[in-house]
Design a protein that fits this description.
Elements (H helix, E strand, L loop, with lengths): L1 E8 L5 H6 L4 H11 L5 E8 L3 E8 L5 H11 L3 H4 L4 E4 L1 H11 L11 H16 L4 H20 L9 H12 L7 E5 L3 H12 L4 E6 L2 H8 L5 E4 L3 H4 L5 E4 L10 H10 L5 E5 L16 E5 H69 L4 H29 L3 H10 L4
Parallel strand pairs: 5-6, 5-8, 6-7, 8-9, 9-10
Antiparallel strand pairs: 1-3, 1-4, 2-3
Helix pairs in contact: 2-6, 5-7, 5-13, 6-7, 7-13, 8-9, 13-14
Length: about 425
């Protein structure tokens, strides 16, 4: 049997292909059951995110043509359209790949933690669909263990590596409790959405989102129990904001020194933390001259992000060492499974011999034979039967000069 991982990700395939090969959560159960109908496959799981779709499975061979045909048929896409973007891993490589994915070492953002939760979701879906067997189930457990070890023993997830996260972290340093603060976010693009998400996760008290298109502001604000306004309404709400983060595509500044100065006076000089993530800048540089205003630009935060990326890269090197060890642990478990069948057969043979000898002894006792004689005969007969075959095999090994078998036997039976 062979362990395989086949898939596409953000590195190998454009989003147009990734979209077509994605498997939404509501179809996973049925999809997994159909996947197991492929004759070669005995166990299977599917990891499907916006950045990757991967199939993990246990099969009789390394031939992936059946899976490719199944994907083409299921997704109604010609093999030639997606096979150039596929990558695959076999056995040891599959184990290492799953560990690296779960640890965030294969992610677009190095060390990002969300992928571990997505991996656990993939495991749960396969478990509920009944497509996991002993080997793949054990591999997932080792995968989660490796990810936990990396998170615990390295700093791979401790430093923010997006300007949005860095902005929120800086806000936490300036304000004791974000739950008492109001954030005004200007824009409705990806960066502002990410900032809103981080602020919401860190318990921000209130979010106001301003955008040129009110509907976009409202759609984003509703996700975080926020309040939407148009750009023209900013002067009416600026004084409410303890935190201002702006990221628009405007070619001219949205906030000037005079407007911010007026807001500070209305706030009775209560400090205001401002982050300008736009290029060109949304906030006039002269705002930095105002007392009680802490203004940071994307360049200020990018320096922090770059330092943190260096920190994560160093942590990733440590993570690879941990993964090396964890891969060996799983391989040792796999190797032990090869001996399990032999152990089972040997134990069964010994138990049959025991039962047969014991039955004869009981018959002798029922016939009136002295108990001590029966016990001695039982011990003698059982010993002879148990060692007869090994002794015969060792004699044959000696005659054939199979010194390796003799040496192995001494090790197995712990003979000095």
């Amino acid at each position: 049997m062979t362990l395989l991982a086949v898939g596409i990700n953000y590195n190998t395939a454009p989003i147009a292909i990734r979209e077509r090969l994605a498997f939404p959560a509501d179809v996973l159960d049925n999809t997994l059951k159909k996947l197991l109908n492929i004759s070669d496959i005995s166990e299977a799981a599917i990891l499907s995110t916006c950045n990757r779709t991967e199939f993990y499975y246990h099969a009789n061979s390394t031939d992936q043509s059946s899976l490719v045909e199944w994907i083409a048929d299921t997704k109604q896409i010609a093999p030639a359209e997606f096979t150039p973007y596929l990558y695959s891993h076999i056995d040891n490589q599959t184990i290492r790949h799953m560990f690296r994915v779960a640890c965030g070492l294969d992610s677009m953002i190095l060390g990002e933690p969300q992928i571990l939760g997505q991996m656990k979701t993939a495991y749960q879906a396969a478990y509920e669909a009944g497509t996991l067997g002993k080997t793949l189930s054990k591999l997932f457990q080792h995968t989660f263990s490796a990810a936990k070890k990396v998170r615990t023993d390295t700093a791979i997830g401790s430093s923010p590596v997006s300007v949005a996260f860095a902005a929120v972290q800086l806000a936490q340093q300036i304000f004791d409790k974000l739950s008492n603060q109001t954030a005004l976010l200007i824009g409705a693009g990806e960066t502002i959405e990410l900032t809103a998400r981080h602020l919401h996760q860190h318990g921000i008290g209130r979010i106001i989102i301003a955008n040129r298109t009110y509907d976009k502001a409202h759609a984003l604000a509703s996700q975080f129990n926020g309040y939407a306004i148009a750009l023209s309404e900013i002067p009416d709400h600026l004084a409410e904001a303890d935190i201002v983060v702006s990221s628009t595509a405007s070619q001219l500044p949205i906030l000037g020194k005079g407007r911010v100065e007026s807001a500070i006076k209305k706030r009775k000089h209560k400090p205001m933390f401002m982050v300008d993530l736009a290029v060109p800048r949304d906030i006039e540089p002269e705002v930095e001259q105002l007392r009680d205003v802490y203004l940071y630009t994307v360049d200020d935060l990018q320096h922090t992000v770059n330092q943190n990326m260096d920190s994560r890269r160093r942590a990733a090197e440590q993570a690879e060492e941990i993964i090396d060890t964890k891969v060996e642990h799983f391989l040792a478990w796999l190797r032990s499974q090869g001996a399990q069948e032999t152990i089972r057969d040997y134990r069964l043979q010994a138990e049959l011999t025991r039962d047969d000898t014991l039955q004869k002894a009981l018959s002798q006792l029922n016939s009136g034979a002295p108990a001590d004689e029966v016990l001695q005969r039982l011990a003698h007969t059982l010993t002879n039967k148990l060692i007869h075959t090994p002794c015969a095999q060792l004699r044959e090994a000696g005659a054939n000069e199979r010194h390796d078998l003799i040496a192995a036997s001494r090790e197995i039976f712990k003979l000095r």
